[in-house]
Amino acid sequence: MVMKNNFKTLTAITLACSLLLACSEQNKRYEDNNTNISKDNSSKPNIVIFYVDDLGWGDLSAYGASQVQTPHVDQLANQGIRFTDAHSSAATCTPSRYSLLTGEHAFRKQVKILKGDAAMVISPDQKTLPKMLKKVGYQTAVVGKWHLGLGDGNSPIDWNSAVTPGPLDIGFDYSFLLPATGDRVPAVYLENQHVVNLSADDPLYVSYQEKVGSRPTGYENPELLRQAADSQHDKTIINGISRIGWMQGGKSAEWVDEEFHTVTTEKANNFISASKDQPFFLFFSFHDIHVPRLPNKMFQGKTDMGVRGDAIVQMDWITGQVTNHLKKLNLLENTLIIFTSDNGAVLTDGYDDQALTLIGDHKMNGPYSGGKYSIFEGGTRVPFIAHYPAKIKPGVSDSLFSQIDIYASVAKLLNIDLSQDEAIDSEDQLAPLMNPTLPARTWLAEETPHAQALRMNEWKYIRPVKRTPAFVKAKKNIDPGTSKLPQLYNLNDDPAELRDLAAEMPDKVTLMEQQLQAIEKRSQRNMTGK
Fold this sequence. Notes:
ten-stranded mixed β-sheet; 20 strands
């Protein structure tokens, strides 16, 4: 039995085992023919992706926020490139994570938001970003929220044994996870393939169909709740917060939400320290600022926006801790850091935490309509910062950029050839990733669970839907952006998507619908570029 809170010992053991098995190669020459950014072949860069949850375009002071200050992220922006028109591939978490790691749109495999006990949506046979990096000598890790499923789906997940397949089967050497999300059971940490601090005398069981165990629930014992919850989030209570799903046993393994900031930061920095003598890839996947928002006491009251604003401050602190650790180890100069979010912001997402009433004048999604769950710009237009002191020319980029292009751009950076069936939607955008004056995409596809859209330069086309998802407006206070008629907007003139031009420009609508269909029919990489 591993004793609770013995995180440092467990990390040292697991990392040592992982590193003994890791491959290593001599440093590889890499160059970019479009810009003079890769002539120095002294070493491969380390790669860190900070993937924040539900952070909107306007949630950072670097993007104009005044009611919350994010100095650590701002420093990355000031010393790197701050993109103003960068997008996640989807307006919800599981699809956008899937696309980032595979380089293909989630709609190709009908990937939607997953339950906490769902099977892994990335097959062990698929090509992935961490697999590609391992081939050229990188040590790879994922720390934080997962929400891409675990197990093969053929049998229920046995949380009391090795949980597989998982991140280790798709290219990661080390993983420390919230298995699904902070608002879903199991509310335990999963390190590599095993639940941390789990006692054999108190086995863990999870159900998303019916109540298991004797823990109180939000619907039975609302008086025990620290935050009131809707009917989706009112099941098993852990740490005073009811979750989605029921959980039995595993008491010694329960996480404490207010400790996420130190636990995950320590795991990330330990991995960096253990991997400092070889190139590494760290996918740091934040819980913040997803619900339930329970920032540590050291951040409470740092803003006037309640727990959501304070969670943003906590997220900024974590970013600074990892960035400063890289600097302390003299790794920051040769590390490509990408800071971004999985989708736009939302205030009410299952809990009454006063985020809506305390928002004040803060514009969480900047000037854009919609937010998380929405096909409007606020659903996928998110903060995106690239920081790489050795190579990047600092500045602000208005180029159209997609997270899905990280895969192919990193491949270009490392001079790796991709096969035609690999990352089929990812384009090489290394040049604009390193130089803010260079153009990127001319078009990109966007999706929500209920709608599809296409950006083409300043134009935005939204495909008509048969049914508008009423719950998004009713329960999330977000305009879903859908209509039974096609929509067309010129974002240069109308960034908030208030004036629909579809009826005035039917030829433009037809052209963009044809382009969207062509994207959907693609079965291999576009080897000719844009």
